[in-house]
Amino acid sequence: MAKLDLPIIPQHVAIIMDGNGRWAKQRGLPRTIGHNKGVEAVRQAVRAAGECGVKYLTLFAFSSENWSRPEAEIEDLLGLLRRFIRRDLADLHRENIRIRIIGERQKLRSDILPLLLEAEETTRNNTAMTLIIAFNYGARDEITRAAIQLVKDVQAGLVDPQDITPDAIGSRLDTAGIPDPDLIIRTSGEERLSNFLLWQAAYSEFVFLPCYWPDFDRQHFVEALRIFAARDRRFGGLSDATTAVVV
Ligand code: FPP
Description:
Blueprint: E1 12-16, H1 20-26, H2 31-52, E2 56-63, H3 71-94, E3 97-102, H4 113-122, E4 129-137, H5 139-155, H6 166-170, E5 183-186, E6 205-208, H7 218-229, H8 240-246
Parallel strand pairs: 1-2, 1-5, 2-4, 3-4, 5-6
Helix pairs in contact: 1-2, 2-3, 3-4
Residues 17-22, 35, 38-39, 42, 59, 61, 66, 77, 80-81, 84, 133, 213 line the site of farnesyl diphosphate.
């Protein structure tokens, strides 16, 4: 692969994979074909991220709100995730990729939870890249669970309420130990966060691509990195250029 000539590569990229259904509808195909093709795009995204030197890639695979879809579509999506883990785990492990799962897992069905735990356990010492799969994930649910844990820690005398800081909350989120996303990509032209990483996205850059997720490939990934590299991130401060004028 030719080296990317970009001044900066985001450490953490998160993706809202949207548009599988519309991709299928446009072609007169059932939604399930769109989801199937979406898994191919997942493989492309993981490969592209690794090749570009991204260290953390988060994919929004199934939201806590997706349970309201028709039963058949839910089964379809769960089946695809199960097959992805069964078929691709060995390859991901060989490529030294660590897998982490974020989302509510206490109430997960027995046909999916053990697979997710196995993927995490098998790859726990891998260091090339971390692939974070958001499954049964909703940011408000994640923050609520962190708040409950914090209250329990206060009640147990482990935390003094006066010492509660943003870090005390961050370290109780599912993403504890993972840096915040520098770049969040959403495909399909929709421009919203849809309950994804609400806490962690405080200073993320957003890139909205018009393509539907099944069409997403390495070129789209690199295009998003180029847009990101041209952004001026200030984190609430002043940019270097502005400082140069002010001083
Ligand atoms: C959005 O399309 C996509 C999803 C709800 C699921 C994404 C899941 C996959 C790509 C497959 C499994 C994931 C992994 C990690 C193997 P949509 O159905 O909302 O499309 P629409 O908005 O056009 O209807």
